[in-house]
């Protein structure tokens, strides 16, 4: 693996038009995958569309990492019939990683026409950071962080740099940077006062990284040529930072935290205080993700109540909830907007306490599912419409 290869693939990725979302009508379910729900606690942990929009990656507790391909009829679809059959989703690639996965991330220059770029990172309990092949599920290489006692340390969070040249990994007391094309233990370190719980890199401003910690703070740093420069520190959340995303222009940062109903928007041109604060349901320690559309217009968030909330953050006035969709019966912990199609992916499930004295009784059914939803133009089924018109005309003639 060479840095030049990744740089070339990143720059050659063809730009595509933004998706046109229609959050005025009900989301139409396109596809679903379901996992057993009680004995094995197979709840999902977020979901992420690949940068080229061809497939969806998710992690299932006790069920490894799985890649699902987008149904083929959706590539050319501009609108969807409301009577469309729901596709059952089966993994195209599975990695049976049974340990606890802390974080995972697609390579930003991923393009299915170039197999070398089709990969993702993951970090798990008591293990190194792994780079996985998205075509075969094979392990390509590992990046290893060691503590002061020269013991292997697991990264709690990770992200790629905007150009894919570097891997940023968050540990208990520092952020380590590995060169993507140079696996092993060689890295550059940036000290942090508290454990890093979330990392995100700005696509518009290469080298700028937001570091979220378990102590409610977000630190913005600029990294170039192996050196770090502190930019500012942001603080408004009540819990550990669990989800962040930059706007495409790099001027805004959105953040969410554990056991904290606030989704905070920061204007990085005036970073002293939040620009505005939105509200969602988040009453557990579970990571509840947020996502922003590529045109900077729509911000979506899951919730522990199973609802997905949508805000139009491009409005000049204070954003209010544009739409609230009850898509799941259990916690909706993952949301991901397709980069080029009006498709929303959601992941549901959470840990439920099991009473060992009542295993023989009928247990409640929990929803642990991965779903794709159409949030674009819809069409009524012409056959159904004809039937309704005929029925109406017959009843009127009688």
Automatic annotation (TrEMBL):
<keyword id="KW-0853">WD repeat</keyword>
<dbReference type="InterPro" id="IPR019775">
    <property type="entry name" value="WD40_repeat_CS"/>
</dbReference>
<dbReference type="InterPro" id="IPR036322">
    <property type="entry name" value="WD40_repeat_dom_sf"/>
</dbReference>
<dbReference type="InterPro" id="IPR015943">
    <property type="entry name" value="WD40/YVTN_repeat-like_dom_sf"/>
</dbReference>
<protein>
    <recommendedName>
        <fullName>WD repeat-containing protein 79</fullName>
    </recommendedName>
</protein>
<keyword id="KW-0677">Repeat</keyword>
<dbReference type="InterPro" id="IPR051150">
    <property type="entry name" value="SWT21/TCAB1_mRNA_Telomere"/>
</dbReference>
<comment type="similarity">
    <text>Belongs to the TCAB1 family.</text>
</comment>
<dbReference type="InterPro" id="IPR001680">
    <property type="entry name" value="WD40_rpt"/>
</dbReference>
<dbReference type="Pfam" id="PF00400">
    <property type="entry name" value="WD40"/>
</dbReference>
<feature type="repeat" description="WD">
    <location>
        <begin position="289"/>
        <end position="314"/>
    </location>
</feature>
